[in-house]
Amino acid sequence: MQQFNRVVSFIIKYVYAFVSCCYLFLVGFIFSKNRFLINQICINFGLDIKRIRPMISKSKFSEIVNTQLPVKIIKGEGTDGNTSLFELLIINLFVKTFNPNSIFGIGTFDGRTTLNLAINSLPAAKIYTIDLPKADTIPPTLFVTPGDKKYIEKNVTGIRYHNKDEKVLPEKNKIIQLYGDTAKFNFNPYFNKINMVFVDAAHSYEYVLNDSKIALKLLKNGKGIILWHDYDVWDGVTQALNELQQQNSKFNSCFHIEGRV
Ligand SMILES: C[S@@+](CC[C@H](N)C(=O)[O-])C[C@H]1O[C@@H](n2cnc3c(N)ncnc32)[C@H](O)[C@@H]1O
């Protein structure tokens, strides 16, 4: 009986997927979210012709950060949209090695990275983090890829540090949550004050260019650390950073950390 149920369930799914594919290829492709799906199908079957090739040279994280320093990882279990555990470890090692007094995270999401920045930084450090307010109130100004929408449409920004069990963490008080679209937000009060920036908001070429230029202006005297997430993962990130590194002398010294950060 169980075997029979499994077969019936598969037949239903097969027919549903078949009809959905007919719709996708005959009509649905006129919507951008469905074109994204066709792109994903091609990647799944090994055709990835539109990918932008990474041009920034690679470096080992162990040559940049002190890997002997103890780091704390909190809320390590990741969800779709977070950094990997390995990337989180490297970000935390950056904090431990360079001891920034002020950190700016562009793209809060559920706040997992923000919380980790808070618990690994100096007691007096401040962690600013920005995200869009609820999606239906402020739509982003620049182009957003269909793949970004599910992260934008999350229910609560910074949920990882809104949980009651985190109340006891004094480090939570270091976090200053800001809301706005990075293409319109008034960053003036923060320009020239920050020691480290983590860029991980919208992944379109337009937004990565915008956010990277903001990140540079945030740095105190133009000096400090900017980390980007998803280079060589999202085409928009790869293309924008390739271009910045080649065309803007301020970004000449960028490198691509092996293992993705
Ligand atoms: C991939 S998630 C960030 C993940 C997070 N950095 C982490 O490490 O867990 C991207 C976040 O950027 C936010 N975002 C996208 N476009 C934005 C914009 N124009 N301005 C501000 N935040 C934006 C999204 O709402 C989403 O929460």
Task: Give the topology, please.
Elements: H1 2-26, H2 32-44, E1 58-59, H3 85-98, E2 102-106, H4 112-120, E3 126-131, H5 149-152, H6 159-162, E4 175-179, E5 196-199, H7 205-218, E6 225-228, H8 235-247, E7 256-257
Parallel strand pairs: 1-7, 2-3, 2-5, 3-4, 5-6
Helix pairs in contact: 3-4, 7-8
The structure holds S-adenosylmethionine (SAM).
- The figure for the number of domains is 2
Distance between the termini: 49 Å
Helical element count? 8
Bound molecules: S-adenosylmethionine
- Give me the side-by-side strand order of the main sheet: 4-3-2-5-6
Features:
single chain; 261 residues; alpha/beta; Rossmann fold; 2 domains; two-stranded parallel ribbon; 37% helix; binds S-adenosylmethionine
